[in-house]
């Protein structure tokens, strides 16, 4: 008989403002009201979330937030156990602690941990007793102080980020200068096992081999009852639709173990646009006690890379990526299943088949939902821009990301790992030839991740397009480039696979009117909002159509940056932080579907139409119609064509050719429609201004309020 106690509530906290708690043996639960030591009193916590979310009314900006990270915090939880609850194997599990921590039970140090996204477990069988037990946790997430080459003029980029997490100060309009999440969140449990158990969550590797057979590896550590008899691990895989059993196997296990199995007759998992995201029910039992139950999917994913191609292949079918970066809140503790579901439904409605989880790790609920909904995931490490160049830091970074790989290995939706994001942007030379890629930590992290998970492709350095262990590009022409440029400068360029492009614009300004001092600071932005939103919309439309017109020649997809604002005053999303769509969402949703029709254009010329079919459906004969109207409302060109549209293909239609000077400088509107043989509309597109392109907004991207972490543009 096993029992689990949820001890995620009834915690108290204090800040150790002088960082003397360990020397004063605070872990022995001493009196905090004595004169002399200056120890704060315990305060009850309403829940386990990041402390900024619990103790500050506005945790997303402001220098007052810096005190959360200037001294450590201590957590206290009393646990009452009766005699029956102290017999057997007793495991204490934390799902999330951000960032460093030390843990004591009844005055005894259990150990320490670094990170925020990975669960960890302590065996407290010989530490707890009947009656009241005292659990103490010291938690801290300090500020970075070291600046590369003492370049204080460029601190945003040159500060050495010692914490292996992407969820703190990224002060260029993303995460405000004074934000550095800290605290215990998620679940804390005490599990009591009278029978055999697993020491920690098992690692599950599930994939489909090149012959179409399912493969499963279960790795873990079995803890017995103190005798030499092994336990029996049962692995059961069943089809939830018809109840068919695909695998039912037993294995004797004791201590560390590895179980491998081949599963025949599996239906592969696909993204929603290529097929069904087929999942099976998998349960693991140890001596008859269930220890794991979850959904699994079998799929085979490859990444073809050479000088001219970066292409994902899923179960033998080419996947054209229509992706978006996902970072829904800087405080991951605020995320929950229904919030993820809301976002993923909007992502799927907008035609995206993939998300990139950008320089952080989300809660398990996100990846479970992506498995179910058929949305692929590219998972980043925490590496971004500039980290310490010590072997100690590199070893820690590699260890923590390899741990993430092992945890997320079980998810069919996770397609690929990114080892480094924008490595070497502060190196000379930059990029592929920089220190991060060539010396450390690039070679070590790439080697370890490919060894840990040989079933998925690994991108060594995201944005190193010319590196064949990477292969993707980032492009901020017309956006973050300085001096400011026009997005039409991408005309004539080619990219194999883009994983970052975008522009930041505020959403509905009514949501920004009740944010106190932030509202006062950005009040002058309100009359500019429409202009900024139009520029964001036109830039994203231009980029996406630029890529889709190059389908397979050489482009195999894109990942827009990003889907939703991660805080109220960061504006890169198609949705604002409250989840309300910006004007760009509607336009992107129209041109981002598996089947689309587009103008093949540059800034002042149309050279034809392109019809794209990213799906596996053979659409047969389809018809395309086009109509161009001048500013007075008169048609200047119309026509139609019949084409054959095969699966995974695009067709160029050359009958349409226009240049701006042919219309005496007058701008044109355009309307495109794609219909099947039954006259049903498969896709449509429209252009309010074919040849007119808004200017790059004044003041972007160089002006920023660092107190609020918000773009100022020209306001």
Automatic annotation (TrEMBL):
UniProt KW Lipid biosynthesis keyword: no
Superkingdom of this protein's organism: Bacteria
Ranges where the Beta-mannosidase-like galactose-binding domain occurs: 64-153
Stretches assigned to the Mannosidase Ig/CBM-like domain: 609-687
Domain Glycoside hydrolase family 2 catalytic, first and last residues per copy: 311-459
Keyword Hydrolase: yes
Protein name, entry field: Beta-galactosidase
Phylogenetic lineage: Bacteria, Bacillati, Actinomycetota, Actinomycetes, Bifidobacteriales
């Amino acid at each position: 008989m096993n029992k689990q106690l949820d001890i995620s509530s009834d915690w108290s906290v204090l800040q150790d403002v002088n960082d003397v708690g360990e020397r004063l043996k605070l872990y022995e639960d001493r009196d905090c009201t004595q004169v002399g030591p200056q120890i704060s009193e315990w305060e009850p916590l309403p829940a386990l979330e990041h402390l900024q979310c619990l103790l500050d009314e506005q945790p997303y900006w402001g220098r007052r937030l810096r005190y959360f990270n200037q001294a450590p915090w201590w957590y206290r939880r009393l646990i009452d156990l009766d005699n029956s609850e102290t017999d057997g194997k007793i495991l204490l599990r934390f799902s999330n602690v951000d960032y460093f921590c030390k843990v004591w039970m009844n005055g005894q140090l259990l150990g320490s941990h670094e990170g925020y996204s990975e669960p960890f477990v302590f065996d407290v069988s010989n530490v707890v007793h009947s009656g009241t037990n005292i659990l103490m946790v010291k938690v801290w997430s300090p500020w970075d102080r070291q600046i590369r080459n003492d370049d204080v003029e460029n601190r945003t980029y040159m500060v050495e980020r010692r914490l292996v997490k992407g969820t703190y100060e990224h002060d260029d309009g993303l995460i405000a200068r004074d934000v550095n999440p800290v605290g215990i969140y998620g679940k804390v449990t005490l599990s009591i096992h009278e029978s055999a158990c697993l020491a920690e969550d098992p690692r599950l590797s599930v994939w489909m081999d090149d012959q179409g057979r399912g493969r499963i590896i279960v790795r873990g550590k079995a803890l017995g009852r103190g005798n030499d008899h092994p336990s029996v691990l049962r692995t059961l895989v069943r089809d939830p639709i018809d109840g068919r059993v695909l695998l039912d196997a037993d294995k004797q296990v004791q201590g560390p173990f590895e179980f491998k199995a081949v599963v025949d007759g599996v239906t592969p998992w696909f993204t929603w646009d290529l097929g069904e995201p087929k999942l099976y029910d998998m349960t693991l039992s140890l001596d008859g006690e269930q220890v794991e139950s979850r959904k699994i999917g079998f799929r085979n994913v490859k990444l073809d890379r050479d000088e001219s191609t970066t292409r994902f292949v899923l179960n033998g079918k080419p996947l054209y990526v229509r992706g978006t970066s996902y970072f829904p809140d800087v405080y991951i503790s605020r995320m929950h299943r229904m919030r993820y579901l809301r976002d993923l439904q909007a992502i799927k409605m907008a035609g995206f088949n993939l998300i990139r989880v950008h320089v952080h790790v989300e809660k398990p609920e996100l990846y479970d939902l992506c498995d179910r909904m058929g949305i692929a995931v590219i998972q980043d490490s925490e590496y971004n821009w500039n980290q310490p160049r010590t072997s100690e830091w590199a070893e820690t970074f590699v260890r923590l990301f390899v741990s993430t790989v092992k945890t997320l290995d079980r998810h069919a939706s996770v397609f690929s790992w990114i080892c480094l994001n924008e490595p070497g942007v502060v190196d000379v030379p930059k990029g592929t030839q920089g220190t991060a890629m060539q010396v450390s930590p690039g070679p070590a992290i790439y080697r370890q991740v490919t060894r840990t998970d040989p079933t998925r492709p690994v991108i060594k350095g995201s944005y190193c397009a010319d590196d064949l262990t990477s292969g993707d590009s980032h492009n901020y022409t017309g956006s973050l480039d300085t001096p400011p440029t026009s997005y039409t400068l991408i005309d004539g360029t080619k990219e194999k696979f883009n994983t970052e492009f975008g522009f930041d614009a505020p959403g509905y300004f009514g949501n920004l009117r009740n944010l106190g001092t932030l509202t006062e600071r950005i009040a002058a932005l309100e009359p500019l909002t429409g202009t900024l939103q139009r520029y964001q919309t036109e830039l994203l439309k231009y980029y996406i159509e630029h890529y889709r017109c190059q389908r397979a020649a050489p482009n195999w997809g894109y990942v827009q940056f990003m889907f939703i604002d991660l805080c109220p005053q960061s504006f890169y999303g198609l949705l604002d932080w409250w989840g309300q769509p910006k004007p760009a969402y509607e336009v992107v949703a129209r041109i981002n579907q598996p089947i689309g029709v587009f103008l093949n254009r540059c800034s002042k010329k149309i050279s034809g139409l392109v019809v794209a079919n990213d799906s596996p459906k053979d659409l047969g004969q389809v018809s395309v119609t086009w109509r161009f109207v001048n500013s007075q409302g008169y048609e200047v060109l119309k026509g139609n064509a019949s084409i054959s549209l095969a699966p995974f293909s695009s067709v160029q239609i050359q009958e349409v050719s226009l240049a701006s000077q042919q219309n005496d400088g007058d701008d044109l509107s355009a309307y495109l429609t794609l219909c099947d043989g039954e006259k049903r509309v498969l896709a449509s597109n429209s252009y309010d201004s074919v040849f007119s392109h808004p200017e790059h907004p004044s003041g972007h991207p160089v002006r920023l309020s660092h107190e609020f972490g918000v773009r100022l543009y020209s306001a």
